[in-house]
Amino acid sequence: MNQFLKTLLAASLALSVFSATAADMKVGFVNVDRLLKNAPQTAEVGKKLEKEFSPRAAELDRLKKQISDQETAGKDASSLRLDFERKQRELNEDINIRKSEELATLQDRINKTINTIAESEGYDLVVYSGIVYANKRTDITDKVLKSLGAAPSSK
């Protein structure tokens, strides 16, 4: 038997074993976009960050008005403008850092929730991102949302 036929036979055998195993698997997926949109923790994070950064945003608004008032009066506001731009840049960077921290915390909670559901309901595989196609009957997003405290959404 030549090498090509041996390789073809091995691949065919592996495929048939995988097919038999895959047919017995319980598979689910989680729609990340819908999960993040509807999870109550997402709104909580937004409110938390708004509260945390609103004083600095208000300071920027005051500074912006001060710049406008000086320019209206014909005064040079270049140093104020530089200060405003620096503070705005720092605020944006700090907000992005805090969003990343909060998202990591939420991601950890979501992963634990998915693992709990998968183990308690006997899933062999749960796919969370990078899905090209999934049949609706394998979608466990509503179960995860319910476990996170959100009402299941209408898809």
UniProtKB/TrEMBL annotation:
Coiled coil: none annotated. Residues 1-22 form the signal peptide. GO terms for cellular component: cytosol. Keywords: Signal. GO terms for biological process: protein stabilization. GO terms for molecular function: unfolded protein binding. It comes from the Bacteria. InterPro entries: Chaperone_Skp, Skp_dom_sf. Belongs to the skp family. This is Outer membrane protein. It comes from Novimethylophilus kurashikiensis. The lineage of its organism: Bacteria, Pseudomonadati, Pseudomonadota, Betaproteobacteria, Nitrosomonadales.
